[in-house]
Amino acid sequence: MDTQAHWDKAYTEKSDNQLSWFQEVPARSLAMIAAASSHGSVIDVGGGASRLADALLDAGYADLTVLDISQAALDRARARLGVRAAQVQWICADITRWVPDRAWDVWHDRAVFHFLIEREAQDAYIAALTAATHPGSAVILSTFAPDGPERCSGLSVQRYSPADLAQRLGAGFMLTDQAAERHVTPWGSIQSFTTAAFRRV
Predict the structure, then answer these.
(1) Between the CA of residue 189 and those of 142, 152, 183, what are the distances in Å?
(2) Average pLDDT of span 1-6
(3) pTM for this structure?
(4) What residues pair up with 64 in beta bridges, in sequence order?
(5) What per-residue confidence (pLDDT) applies to 19?
(6) From the centroid of its chain, how far is CA 111?
């Protein structure tokens, strides 16, 4: 099964509260985005059916983009938002093959990068990230922490500390903030996440 089919299957067969990464309120992401830019453009990479777009619209953000490899996930989010879905740009794409046609003030990714376990895929992600941001843009990445799960949704993951993420992104991105998060899944288990904010230099 290819990557897109894998994620379409997950979103087709399971409801939100059956997905381990579900958050009713994405509080950490909202706080870090607000700290980075109170009104700028935001792209949520791997946003899928996340509630983040809803919360950002509520907070007054007017230039929002959600990118995900799964059309099923995007369709779920659009259906939930109803008429407000027209206020968001939706992109169905594999981040490792995507060529952006603009730049954003904030790049947000909660749990896409850690699925890229091959260096070639990581390099392609970083190339897209660089093309989709400008000097001064904020980059917010959340991945499984070193003591987090080794697998998710049946797939292997790469775990990171903030220092690991900084090293992997390279000198073009300066670490500005970091946080450890203990994510509680809908069924009550605990997953350790690393969240790190960077400023593109």
Answers:
(1) 18, 13, 8
(2) 83
(3) 0.93
(4) 42, 88
(5) 76
(6) 6
